[in-house]
Predict the 3D structure of the following.
Amino acid sequence: MTLMIKMKGFEADVVRKSIKNIYLKICLPDGKIRISAPIQMKIEEIKRLVISKLNWIEKQQENIRNKKTNFQKYTNNETHYYRGESYKLRIVYNKLPFVKLIDKQIILHTPPESSIEYRRTILNIWYRNQLMILIPPLINKWEKILNVSVDNFFIRSMKTRWGSCTPKSRRIRFNLDLAKASPEILEYIVVHELMHLIEASHNRKFKTLMDQYLPNWKYFKNELNKMNFNI
């Protein structure tokens, strides 16, 4: 069963499900609020949750509006990011597509008349390859420090998570956009996900361990939340 609720200038779609907890999501591409709620939960309770999250909702919707306004076209002199630094994109026409980093430019070799999607794909392949080089040394470092073992890791395009871990299989997934983040933020995410091999949830024990092994993790978490790469 789906219904719409309105409050304080906001509208939200509420979907009743056979679940124990309530979930709130800001959906692409228009920033619409979608709530999954237990069947028996009262509307008043749902509204109280939305009201308590208004600042967060406004921030997420603003980020979505900014991304739509600044949608990248993969043209010359457009700003792109790598390792926390901004670079100007330079397009070079070439039958063989590839990417090179020279000084403060990302050189994108691409066939003439290539589409935006094609150029995005080539650049994302390069980002993925960079992460496949950057992440293993960090995993090796923190495996020894935390006394854990990672079976495998993957790079994924993810809209709502920077990383995820499956403790049982010891497999970790990292967001492709971490190639654009600073080295310190990338390391924070690696530590965060490896820590889930010790403690699966984000409970007090998890936070205590993070404080112990990476005391400034909360700073990096806040910086990560501020990132907007116009993607």
